[in-house]
Write a structure and sequence with these properties.
Elements (H helix, E strand, L loop, with lengths): L7 E6 L6 H10 L4 E3 L3 E2 L14 E2 L2 H9 L3 E7 L4 E6 H9 L3 E5 L2 H10 L4 E6 L3 H11 L4 H14 L8 E4 L3 H16 L2 H4 L6
Parallel strand pairs: 1-7, 1-8, 2-7, 3-4, 8-9
Antiparallel strand pairs: 3-6, 5-6
Helix pairs in contact: 1-7, 5-6
Bound molecules: adenosine-5'-diphosphate and guanosine-5'-monophosphate.
């Protein structure tokens, strides 16, 4: 199929438990040219997660080697220094060049690094409707210990004010409505003249 658009890089951030993965799954199901950037991480795999699908689960040593070789677009540690996360650069280049919509689910520090390197990236912040609801969701997800939940709540309090630097804010109260908002953002960004005009066929 002939290309009709520039590629789109959409960065989604927000507190752990806000519902980023849930929304991204929904939006991606409905978009043909969507591609999710699978991050590398040194954290332990959670029940239900699949290596290569949710993350590339790698050793700290392997992570640091890749970092040294310039293999990450951005990287960060989260909740202290115990877990490292990074976005592999090569597949992003490939999918952007193919005109795909590339989704990144990364934290606020990573998003800042992406914006510096690729200013055309679109930044979307996802919040829960309240901190109480965030805690409820983290508990209901059942993948974190009480200590981890406490650390994630503290991280959320630090992350939320940084939403002001993003292009869009999606409040994930009712899931379907929030997914529709995210879908609308992607559609609007694809309709930008800068992305479409170079591909007009007449
Ligand atoms: P994140 O990717 O931001 O860490 P998840 O997508 O894993 O968050 O969602 C955290 C938990 O909250 C999951 O159990 C998910 O099913 C639930 N969840 C997501 N969105 C909503 C919503 N709008 N209403 C209620 N629960 C939700
Ligand atoms: P979790 O451990 O809950 O999957 O993710 C914890 C946090 O790390 C989330 O805020 C998530 O967005 C972020 N994260 C996941 N992958 C990456 C990545 O590649 N880079 C950065 N900077 N953050 C990431």
């Amino acid at each position: 199929m002939q290309r009709e658009n520039e590629g789109l890089l959409l960065v989604v951030s927000g507190p752990s438990g806000a519902g980023k993965s849930t929304l991204l799954h929904r939006v991606m199901q409905e978009r043909e040219n969507a591609w999710f950037s699978v991050s590398a991480t040194t954290r332990a795999m959670r029940e239900g997660e699949v290596d290569g699908v949710d993350y590339h689960f790698i050793s700290r040593e392997c992570f640091l080697e890749t970092l040294d070789a310039g293999g990450f677009l951005e990287h960060n540690s989260y909740c202290g220094n115990d877990s490292l996360y990074g976005t592999p650069l090569a597949p992003i280049r490939t999918h952007m060049a193919a005109g795909d919509c590339v989704f990144l689910d990364i934290d606020v520090n990573g998003a800042r690094q992406v914006r510096e390197k690729l200013p055309e990236a679109i930044l979307v912040f996802v919040t829960p409707p309240s901190m109480e609801e965030l805690e409820t969701r983290l508990r209901r997800r059942g993948t974190n210990t009480e200590a981890q939940i406490a650390r994630r709540m503290a991280a959320a309090a630090q992350e939320l004010p940084q939403a002001a630097a993003y292009d869009y804010l999606v409040i994930n109260d009712e899931c379907e409505a929030a997914a529709q908002e995210l879908q609308a953002i992607v559609t609007a960004e694809y309709c930008r003249c800068t992305r479409r005009f170079p591909y007009l066929k007449f």
